[in-house]
Amino acid sequence: MAHANKPDYRTWSREALIARLDELEGQPAQSPTLPAANSPAARQPRAFDWSKHSRRRIALKVAYLGWDYYGVAAQGDQATVPTVEAKLFEALQQCRLIKGARQCRFSRCGRTDRGVSGLGQVMALDVRSAIPSDQIEAVVGGIHPLTSDDALVERARSQRLTAGGDEPLSRSAPQHLRKHWQAAAILGLTDLPAATTPWPTTALDQQELPYLRMLNRNLPADIRVLAWAPVPLGFDARFDCLWRHYKYFFSLDAHPRLDIARMRDAAQRFLGTHDFRYFCKLDPNKEVVNYQRTVLEIDITPVEPCGVAATAPWYQVDLRGSAFLWHQVRCMMSILFAVGQGLEDPSVVDWLLTVDPALGRPLYPLASELPLILYDAYYTPALAWQAHDGTNSHHALELNHRTWQTTWANLSTKAHIVQAGLGLMRQTMVPIALSTTRFDALSWEQRQALGGVPALLLLTGGGELQPMRDYQPLHQRKRLDNSSIHNERVCQRKARQDNPAMPTTVPLVGAKRKRPEPASEAN
Q1: Active site (annotated) includes residue 113
Q2: What whole-number distance in Å separates Cα of residue 51 and Cα of residue 53?
Q3: Quick check: helix, strand or coil at residue 326?
Q4: Number of helices and strands (H, E) in the chain?
Q5: How far apart, in whole angstroms, are the C-alpha atoms of residue 296 and residue 180?
Q6: What's 204's DSSP letter?
Q7: How far apart, in whole angstroms, are the C-alpha atoms of residue 282 and residue 223?
Q8: Quick one: which of 192, 479, 507, 519 could link to 513 by a disulfide (CB 3.0–4.6 Å)?
């Protein structure tokens, strides 16, 4: 039935209808009144009560592809500077395994830089546990047998932190490295017993939270937690590590004339304990006085290419050492590449290891970060890694394998596409010596004669080549500031942060100053 007061819009003029529409549009919208719902209002999420949960210390073995990250260590704004640890902390908090990064006594084995990957990174932290508090002590005990002398441990840690080093505190050398006499003697571990028995696991560990499944479901595909291990309350992933194992991959595609024998000769000269200040980059925010590092083993071996048919052999550099300086491995690889190209003699390694404190490092480029990975870390006693959750369920391992199998297939597909493009280029006919020939049939000298290849291409790894007009030997190059000047500048900068009115006594970075007179250099 029509409303009695309803106007008859059919009789309205066009102008009146428009005015009525404007009036209605200016009024606030009214939604029809709905009947009250029978269901109660949605509940607010209850705050997580940490006091009702026990905690324990564990180690995580983490693998990550570092190409898209600004290093492993959390730093700065994660929206613009993504890091591996920031992603891990985010996942840990989403799973309610930690309250925050500052409350979990976090430590890592090694700090990898931007673009560097890790397959055996070890991280230790305190996490929520399903095991009651009164039973956690029975799982692994509270005292690390290798660090039971607290006074000795604290004194050693203090000395190494003051020296700016990253030396381990473990007290025994691995038995399988006894062929390297320096493994124990150089590290000062000869008077300490070996302890290679893994940390024990108990039936209680089978009742633990599914750490691997929980974390990997909340992590991006390029970060995987491979395993976890029970560790004592005092375990430190950095200071309890005996040695680190790095790998660096390269192929002869970029430079087919790389002399592997010369590179091996130069590499063996790194063995032992040396002052590596000419094989590192000085941190502008850190004072370092200890540049002594120990290389336990280094070797260059061929590896089988994977995914795509290789046009040249692939090699890997295996490097094991007690600890490493900032960019030390990349500096070492840069020199090895120069030796392999015949630009430097293998004896240049001996020359660079003979340090003159008055002189800084000669200027030379860093090798690419792309092929570098932190492959493994060694502890004694060995950590009892568990790649499963609960009662031997291998769901976590299957998930990790499937995730990275997808990553491999994706990258392999891209590699095949690039290879197809290269194949077309190699088949291109080019004029040479009054005739034509396929591009891939040209020698290196013929390609240079055509003008497409610079006179010198300096190999820096990762397929990168630096074009150069000529090569200047290392002993003739300009040098950076020596370590004393660097440390004084760091101290001055820190002092000026506390007292901005403090006068400048040492030129800041980038300021011109007179360099010290170079000392005589041995050939």
Answers
A1: yes
A2: 6
A3: coil
A4: 12, 13
A5: 7
A6: G
A7: 29
A8: 507
- The two tokens of residue 103 are 């409350």
CA distances from 19 to 10, 14, 22 (A): 15, 9, 5
Strands (E), 288-399: 292-303, 314-321, 372-379
Residue with tokens 């992933």: 237
- Residues 6 or more apart from 488 whose CB is under 8 A from it? 505, 506
| Range of lowest pLDDT (87-91, 204-208, 344-348, 407-411) | 204-208
- Rounded to whole angstroms, how far apart are CA atoms 315 and 248? 8
Q: Tens digits of per-residue pLDDT, 339-382?
A: 999 999 999 999 999 989 888 899 999 999 999 999 999 998 88
Place of tokens 């190699």: 426
Long-range contacts of 269-275, Cβ-Cβ distance < 8 Å, separation of 24 or more: 269/346, 269/347, 269/349, 269/350, 269/353, 270/295, 270/298, 270/332, 270/349, 270/353, 271/180, 271/182, 271/295, 271/296, 271/297, 271/298, 272/182, 272/186, 273/182, 273/186, 274/353, 275/353, 275/355
**Beta-strand pair 117-129/372-379:** parallel
Would you call 425 helix, strand, or coil by DSSP? Answer: helix
Q: Are the C-beta atoms of 496 and 508 separated by less than 8 Å?
A: no
| pLDDT tens-digit series, residues 39-56 | 566 677 778 888 888 899
Out of 8, 68, 113, 236, pick the active-site residue: 113
Question: Could you tell me the fold of the domain covering 50-480?
Answer: Alpha-Beta Plaits (3.30.70)
Q: How far apart are CA 352 and CA 330, in angstroms?
A: 15
Phi, psi of 379 (to 5 degrees): -130, 150
Residue 5 has pLDDT above 90, yes or no: no
**Per-domain boundaries in the chain:** 50-480
Tracing tokens 């290891």 back to the chain, one arrives at 353
Q: pTM higher than 0.85, yes or no?
A: no
In DSSP terms, 127 is beta-bridged to 56
* CA gap 140, 383 in Å, rounded: 11
Q: 488: burial class by Cβ within 10 Å (0-12, 13-18, 19+)?
A: middle
**Contact residues for 96 (Cβ-Cβ < 8 A; gap 6+):** 48, 128
CB atoms within 10 A of CB 328: 22
SS (H, E, C) 285-318: CCCCCCCEEEEEEEEEEEECCCCCCCCCCEEEEE
